[in-house]
Amino acid sequence: MTLLLGLTGLSVRYPGARAPALAELGLALFEGEKLAIIGESGSGKSTLARAIAGLLPPGSRVEGRIDWGDGPTPRPGRDIGYVFQDPGGSLNPLLSVGRHLTEVLRTHLPLTARDARARAAELLDTVQIPDPARALNAYPHQFSGGQRQRIAIALAIAAGPRLLIADEATSALDVLVQTEITALLRTLCDAKGMTLLFITHDMALAGQLADRIAVMHAARMVEIGPAARVLQAPRESYTRSLLAAHLDLASPRLVGEAR
Ligand SMILES: Nc1ncnc2c1ncn2[C@@H]1O[C@H](COP(=O)(O)OP(=O)(O)OP(=O)(O)O)[C@@H](O)[C@H]1O
Known about the structure:
The protein has 259 residues and is of the alpha/beta class. It contains 10 helices and 9 strands. The radius of gyration is 18 Å and the shape is globular. The model has no long low-confidence stretch (mean pLDDT 91). Adenosine-5'-triphosphate (ATP) binds at residues 14, 17, 21, 39, 41-47, 57, 201. Residues 14, 17, 21, 39, 41-47, 57, 201 line the site of adenosine-5'-triphosphate.
């Protein structure tokens, strides 16, 4: 296994905050793996993702180290793709879908306008948007929420990133669409050898998608291990309580769904 990135003693404090949002976190992320980060709201999942992607707000205090395996530090948008919970955040209502994609493509890759448009249509096809040639001329509001999230994924992968971060990317979608988008993320990462960091509060989705699961609690990573092991035989009492809460709220099929 090749190391994509290693975190050592990573701590983050937002400007003006009294407590750190991330405390002394260590993590090794390997090329091509799918890691789910789970934990309750406010535990630091998004902060971890933002720190890795270089998207922390100005003035944040970061201690510790982020080491990338080899090559230069990746650039967000090119080497790291980011999909947010709300696709509206990545889509400008005034720009056509084709314009969004061609701008990202031409910012990061040496493509002519014509080649960028052809590549944009291919990307829409890859994320299973019907009739890509027509979709290029349409605007975000002309698509369903699930389709907008597919377009946001197309934008995130346009420049061929090594790491894709999906931060609650399916949380705003209904269950059926959630499953479809999860399947799409898995297919894309497998086909392109991309590493996936998948942030969710849904343990069943984490079990469906991830090779490993990391559990966050109060700014710390309390447990990490193979998905099936974490779900079937959690070592930490906090993970057990998260699982118990999930089983109270959801179907009892969670363990059977782990890979
Ligand atoms: N921009 C910010 N400025 C100040 N504090 C912040 C900022 N963003 C997050 N925080 C705080 O940092 C802590 C961790 O937040 P974070 O968003 O990483 O948690 P999370 O686990 O992703 O939560 P959620 O599941 O609700 O998105 C929380 O206490 C939160 O209030």
